[in-house]
Amino acid sequence: ILHWQPNQGSEMNSQVLEEISQCVETLNGVKEGSCKTSLTFYKPNLQDQSAVMDFPRDFMGISMPELPNKYFLIIRGQRIVLEADSSILVIMEKLQSYKPKAILNFEGELYKLGDFQIRVIKVVPHQTETLKGIMVEIDYLPISSVENSKQIMKEFIDIWKEVVSKKSLAGEFTHAETNYAEYGLGDNYTSQHTAVQYAAAALTQLIQSSQLRS
């Protein structure tokens, strides 16, 4: 996942998003539909504050449209990622142990470009259209090994950044390596790897919008 980093004093707006989408089309990307991933930031809902140490102080829940029967839980403090049946949402609703603090939607367009799959994504808080971030998610479909795909991904990202630079936009894409081993994940890329990436992306957006501090 690449994050759009505006230059200091520049704004994140829909025009930038449109220009970035045009970059995919410049590379002959073919639009295949829309995509939406939702992430909920949960906090404990404790009546007895003395029990707070018995619970994780927060965790994230992630739903992916391509896996409607799954729900992913990320406990950042303990570096745990869990893949659960989507029915866990019903259980959580009944228990009321945790309450949603913030919800972010990752909405965008899905493109196919040869062996690559690209999502151009806008990050918006739930039930608003306020643009909080822009991301590009890149998948290289033939290889599931994180290590073996690094070089070809690096080469593609370099090409992508060059195409974007020709737009003379006030900002650039940045990329931070995700340490999957911290979450006990192996080299074979799975949906749990994707969940960890989205959790990292959401944390960045939540901090920027000051929702964590409220």
UniProtKB/TrEMBL annotation:
It comes from the Eukaryota. InterPro entries: Mediator_Med20. Keywords: Activator, Nucleus, Transcription, Transcription regulation. GO terms for molecular function: transcription coactivator activity. GO terms for biological process: regulation of transcription by RNA polymerase II. One of its GO terms (cellular component) is mediator complex. The keyword Metal-binding does not apply. Transmembrane segments: none annotated. It is found in: Nucleus. Component of the Mediator complex, a coactivator involved in the regulated transcription of nearly all RNA polymerase II-dependent genes. Mediator functions as a bridge to convey information from gene-specific regulatory proteins to the basal RNA polymerase II transcription machinery. Mediator is recruited to promoters by direct interactions with regulatory proteins and serves as a scaffold for the assembly of a functional preinitiation complex with RNA polymerase II and the general transcription factors. Component of the Mediator complex. Belongs to the Mediator complex subunit 20 family. This is Mediator of RNA polymerase II transcription subunit 20. It comes from Cajanus cajan (Pigeon pea). The gene is MED20.
